[in-house]
Amino acid sequence: MNSCLPFASSFRPPSLLSHRLFNGSVITSRTSFCVSRLRSSSRSRSIISFQHVEMASSASQPSKSVTTGDAIGASDVLQMIQSYQAEAARLPPIEEVRTILDGSVRGILSTHSQDHDGYPSGSMVDFAFDNDGFPLLAISSLAVHSKNLLANPRCSLLVAKDPEDCTDIVITLLGDAVVVSENDREAVRSAYLRRHPNAFWVDFGDFCFFQINPKFVRYVTGVATASLGSGEFTIEEYKAVKVDPIYQFSVPITSLMNKVHAEDTKAIVQHYTSIKVDSAYMLDVDSLGFNVKACYQGYNFKLRIPFPKRAHIRKDAKTNIMEMLEAAKATV
Fold it and tell me: Boundaries of each Pyridoxamine 5'-phosphate oxidase N-terminal domain copy (predicted)?
């Protein structure tokens, strides 16, 4: 059977943040805010949010800069961000959901408690994904959630893109967990160890693999704010999309930019948003652009910065960034 080790040491769930009103926008006590526009499938609604860099049109739109004075007030900044983010090209919602999940390794598994009838039981678990985007779990038969799944396979897996930011996208897969057959065990084991190379315990006698067969995939943004957005997809829609090919290079690209070229990132953000941010920390990269966490006069917020053109390979992302930097420097 199968269960999961206590992985809670390095994972911290989103903290509960108090909020205050700032020029018509909800600002957390950590002074963070974001602006974005959500264009989802027919299952979700279109909103304007000052809380989270969400997902919008998949159409590749050229980046642009806006000419404004350097001295601008906070309310003007919010309006500029809103205007810029409304046109920022992003992955389609379902593609971003699939991509974020593929790049994640830890979440909260909720099962039906056998000890407390009718109540859910949550456990922190590590996971991997198969080629269809179905979660793979390595669980000990001694674990409570292993026993729960064997008695009732219906479960959910919750994954937060940014566990430190409760307003960022949170994804939930709802489905049925099944024990991986002996014939499929080696393939599943290999897939799991590719994501968790140090998980030597998967070969212990009390461990086995579960696969969650999703029925529905949901996402929500703007949790704990007035700017709530959500969407739901069927498993057919989920399986039909591919993982973004550039997102997998986020770590090496952002590490280099943040460690060596932080000023260049700031210059690009300043040029294309016309906001004289004090800093800009690159978070992740995909085919259509990148996301940053910027700071302006003590306020932290997330921004979407679209590429001039779609990146098909890693080199294209580098070329886009270099071209954007050249454009930024040309206006200094």
Answer: 95-220
Q: Which residues pair with 192 in a beta bridge?
A: none
Q: Are residues 108 and 234 in the same domain?
A: yes
Q: How far apart are CA 289 and CA 267, in angstroms?
A: 16
Q: What are phi and psi of 280, to 5 degrees?
A: -150, 115
Residue 148 in any domain: the answer is: yes
CA dist., res. 23 & res. 135, Å (int): 42
What is the CA angle 89-94-98, rounded to 5? Answer: 105
Round to whole Å and give the CA distance between 138 and 209: 5
Task: For 178-194, give one letter per residue: b (16+ CB within 10 A) or e.
Answer: ebbeeeeeeebbebbbe
State the Cα–Cα distance between residues 57 and 68, nearest whole angstrom. Answer: 26
Question: Which of the listed residues 209, 241, 273 is the one where a domain comes to its end?
Answer: 241
Q: What is the pLDDT of residues 98-149, one digit of tens each?
A: 999 999 999 999 999 999 999 999 999 999 999 999 999 999 999 999 999 9
Is 7 inside a domain boundary? Answer: no
Instruction: Calculate Rg over the CA atoms of the chain.
Output: 21
Please check whether residues 103 and 215 belong to one and the same domain: yes
Which pTM was predicted? Answer: 0.76
In the three-class reduction of DSSP (H, G, I as helix; E, B as strand; rest coil), residue 158 is classed as strand
* 124 CB-side CA count, 13 A: 12
Mean pLDDT estimate for the chain: 81
Residue 114 and residue 151 share a domain: yes
Looking at the structure, tell me whether residues 225 and 281 fall in a common domain: no
Where would I find the H helices in the chain?
A: 74-87, 93-102, 144-151, 182-195, 235-240, 250-260, 262-273, 314-330
